[in-house]
Design goal:
15 helices; 2 strands; about 70% helix; homodimer
């Protein structure tokens, strides 16, 4: 594997997803202008776009049309962006810094940030209803159900609720895992599966992609916890050390730094193992596993 | 028209929509239990279900299968219920009473109420992806786009944003109308159109239903403003006199009580006129116009 090759692959797709997000979000001069400006503020010009990259990588496996995958990726990224805006609100994590900028409710106001999140979720589903993502519209309805389930109370929003209930508690490693399977894992799995479903995905490929995404989603969170404990705020683009300060259970608090890093590496190996039967088509998924686990921000 | 007949028609459909909402919302004993209990609290056991009734009435016009219409109606009602939960939050209208009960954030807490709204929006789209609503899945994708657009920043959420910007201002009647076309009108139109699209809807019927719904949506809001000024809290099930207290622009503040009532009646006549070409199939839509404009709660 050639890291430079992966970097240019990822950069090209980050540019493409940015252009699509830019295009599908209403312009700031269209009324209600303040809401639209705040929606663009919350989504554009920042973010690693890990979820769309996963969709692209899974789409390459199933020879999906990248113009379809980018819409699926944009929908997932909009759900992710909405969750960050709501998660940063005073009644949730009460954070002031995100992606190196003031959070949405700090830059605008709480009510606007609330509506930004609400409206971004709507845009995500609007895209999935509007653009053709699959040869069979019935398959596309399944994709919509998949994303809605991943975003909802048995997925991402449910993970946030478990997170709320866990503040100040010491969670066991299985309890932590359950929280993260919901909070970040569900949407990461949805990213990869939606990307794959934009192409010709047989059951064997979908199962492998799903298993890969489960492991890599958890690894992503473990690495997040390690970075929160280790990296400076300037590198992270969000407030570092926030987890410990808010007395939140993390992998670092449950396992310690050394074992957390070893666990992330173990999950990366599990993720790669799931891809073994897929051959060369899974190259980008393998490279993404490295990108996610070995990142420094 | 026989009022007793309409009342039993509406009651049967209110019972059916309640049963479906009860069934599609996750049980309170399923984790995360507090979130699921709060979602059920916010949706079940109250509400006039005006939007699902509109979907049913429009569905009768196009001979739609009521088992399809009830899913479309449930999806719209879930979007409506989420908007009420978020609208009542301290950073928005800061209200403590809704449908005769403490609002969701008072009964639970702000963070839970935020997640309740987020998750209810996801359930709405999950239903539209999961159940068969149209013979042609491509038409169903259009229905999803329609609901997402009506809920988003150019529809309901956008109306809330215009509302926020208007507090303390004196709006002209056209400005008020623009706000309400977004805030309540978009979702009411979507209700009627989705109901119609569950059946065989030709362009002529869709145009008539849409025009009807535009007028009746605005009438609904004018009547809301009149009731807020006139009715006691106990009858409304929400805090009365709130608009004047919060210095919100309303039809009553713009036109006065007498002219507001006359305007509501004018809109009802406009709505009925739109249905004229449709004959007997539009009976329930006509009765609903009366129900909405002549209601006392």
């Amino acid at each position: 594997m050639n890291p430079a090759d992966f970097q240019s692959w990822a950069a090209a797709r980050q540019t493409r997803i940015e252009a699509v997000l830019e295009q599908v979000l209403p312009l700031s001069r269209i009324a209600p202008a303040r809401l639209h400006a705040a929606m663009r503020y919350a989504v554009l010009g920042a973010g690693k776009r890990v979820r769309p990259l996963l969709a692209f990588a899974a789409g390459e496996l199933t020879r999906a049309d990248p113009e379809r995958v980018v819409i699926a990726g944009a929908a997932v990224e909009l759900i992710h962006a909405y969750s960050l805006v709501h998660d940063d609100l005073p009644c949730m994590d009460d954070d002031v810094l995100r992606r190196g900028k003031p959070t949405c409710h700090v830059e605008y106001d709480e009510a606007t940030a609330l509506l930004v999140g609400d409206a971004l979720q709507s845009v995500a589903f609007q895209l999935l209803g509007e653009y053709r993502l699959s040869d069979d519209p019935a398959d596309q309805l399944d994709m919509i159900k998949l994303l809605a389930t991943a975003a909802g109370s048995r997925g991402m929003a449910g993970g946030q609720a478990i997170d709320l209930e866990s503040v100040g508690k010491k969670l066991s490693v299985p309890e932590l895992e359950l929280m993260h399977i919901h909070k970040t894992g569900a949407l990461i799995r949805a990213s990869a599966l939606l990307g794959a479903k934009c192409g010709k995905a047989d059951e064997r490929a979908l199962t492998a992609v799903d298993t890969f995404a489960k492991h890599i989603g958890l690894a992503f969170q473990v690495v997040d916890d390690v970075l929160d404990a280790e990296a400076p705020t300037a590198t992270l683009g969000k407030t570092a050390g926030k987890d410990a300060q808010q007395n939140k259970p993390t992998y670092v608090s449950a396992l310690g730094l050394t074992d957390s890093k070893a666990f992330a590496e173990e999950l990366r190996q599990d993720a790669l193992r799931a891809l073994a039967p897929l051959g060369e088509g899974a190259l980008r998924l393998r490279q993404l596993a490295d990108f996610i686990v070995l990142r420094r921000f």
